[in-house]
Amino acid sequence: MNENHSDNQIGRARVQDSPELQAYYKELETLGAGALWTVANDIEPWEPRSSSVPMLWQYDKLRDLVLQSSELVTPEQAGRRVVYLVNDKRKDVSAAVGWLYTGIQVTRPGESTSAHKHKASALRFIMEGEGGYTVVDGNKITFEVNDFVITPNSTWHEHGVAENGKTCIWQDGLDIPLVNALEANDYAVFDGKQPLENPINYSPITYGGSAGLLPSDQKWNKPYSPLFKYAWKSVYPALVETSKIKEFSPFDGILMHYSNPLTGGHVMQTMGASMQLLPIGFKGKAHKHTGSFVYQCAKGSGYSIINGVRFNWKERDIFCVPSWAWHEHHNNSETEDACLFSFNDLPVIEKLGLFQDKIYTENNGHQIVKL
């Protein structure tokens, strides 16, 4: 493979402009056409190119404004009472990074949202509160802090907090920008409340709470995970135990994917999610890959260097890593491990054969931080 990335070589567009060509181009425009060589080098870059920029959203600066939204509008008025996080370069499509959306939703005790569904897939990562629940296709599921919940595309879903609970805040993640870009999204509202089809927590008990056992009488033919909640009380100990026996990735420490228990694959067709543990004092090396990522610090503190810029994060902060951006993660504590939740568009990237990665080899694998 030719590693010379100069456009001044055979195989790249190198046509010199002229009055005759300018007139030719204008005539093509009148017919809704154009000459490929005028745009070829731009639409076929030498390497993947992201329209997004790395960003960090600090939770302690956003939290009061998130809570204030619950005083200004009701769930019925807002449909979904969410403060969404938008990338400086993706405002036109309301995306946090790439074709992924994220926001922070708040629900008070006794409140609930109306049931609805859409072609976009959705996920939740619980940040604060007690007594919260979701109902997915008639399955009511309670959740706690750091639990991960999915509401796959075209499933009826609603959320709420019990009367005796405490105000709940969670991060939403959706592929709305992607599905809109494909011109395939829709939205529907359920007439009334969903009737419950199974006992409370049927899904996590059936598919996630049986020590790896699956009931022999269960039949599941959906393209997403039947396990709608992944509990932190099981996830964190699994990370800790794995860290005792497994060699750390030089890039990600202990990285584990939330998976469909029936297939071992991603939880949904268009979005995947992971939890990783950065051991005490971990200094990750840099790499880059295709696929857009949104992170939330679930435990501890540290920093990430993304394309040469340092972003300091602590518990509940959210940040993004654009596709093909150099990145490395560091735990700056000498006494406590750190955990990062993330969601991504890898299911799409992988299914389309678009995944590639590259390791940073200079400076012993660590980027030089730009001042």
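Next protein, fold it too.
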Amino acid sequence: MNKSLLVKFVFIFFITPFFINAQDVNAQIPTDSDNSIKYPQFQFKGLLQARYLESFGENVDVLGVHHSTGEVTQSSFDIKRMRVGLNTKLSTTTEVVILVNLADFKSDPKGKVLENAYGKYTFNKYIALTGGQFRPAFGIEELVPVDIIKSFDFSNQYYEFGKNGWTSFQIGASATGAFDIGKIPVNYAISVLNGNGRNQEMDNDNGKQYATRWVFELSKVHKINLGLNGGIGKRADQKVFAVGADITSDFKLTDRFSFDLQIEYKQGSNQNLYFSLPVDGRTSNVDDYQMRGVYFLPNLRYIVDYKKLSSLELSCRFESFDNNFKVNSNVRKTYTPMISLEFGKAYLGRIEMGFEIDRYDKNIPDTSFYNDDLFLIQLQLRL
């Protein structure tokens, strides 16, 4: 069985339980019967991430690019994100979400700035429909805002799969919901996407990408969740796919100590790389150009509650990623040790310090495919 047929089979298999539970679709429908609740309701959100960066790589700048000649900027202050958002509830069932990142104006803002711009209608707990520009569920990181992740930033695989239309901000529609299989709670998401990134005038071809994610809660006490992802689609005349699996857990060791762990694996077509190559410089099949990656992110949390300091966290993500392992493999291994001080609740204020250490199988001069040791201090403020 070829990979496209296998992914289609998995996709259909995952969708089946949703239709099995369709007979309960009229249960728990929200109502506006409580006249004391006034609509619309507005919630403003904001995020500032300011950084100091210093590269210790030989002739490597703070953006991770190697320079064989010329001056190299190896220390700099930076505004990583300056987000402003508005969540509007029009009723108990309808909401509109807008999110922009003003820090994108520091470079060419084309295709940037606007992040979330979608509407969502919730029928009941079994099904809600979302349309617009949003983050489709396709892995752990899609469901976690960048301001509460346990590392400085998302993983390398997250950004690469975003370039290929599966993660990050995409334009399309999605159905999400939850139900139980026996005693196991299940969350699902099924998405149809243009697959060519955010802030695009239109799709760049007639092909669409179909993605699904299913999360099974295996332990409520230790918050052990198993996630399965699958996707198929078409880009120009080529069929593309993506698959993934992940597991998360959170163990309370004592009243003050807790330990959580994330493990995620993804593999899929790298059509973004394939179509960026000249026709005479690539094979005839996009399936020859595939990416795959895995990361482990353990995090130890200690509740301090001393004056304004809420907690202390220690984490170290290890990631192995290869954006073209079949034709021209060059594995990138990234180590991200970090210490985080939390002030207030829910990361209202946060000071982070650590390293991003990159090691490649092959260093390529004058590119970002080059060994680097980047030191970071990051200040985060959110509301």
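About the second fold: Helices lie at 3-20, 156-163, 271-276.
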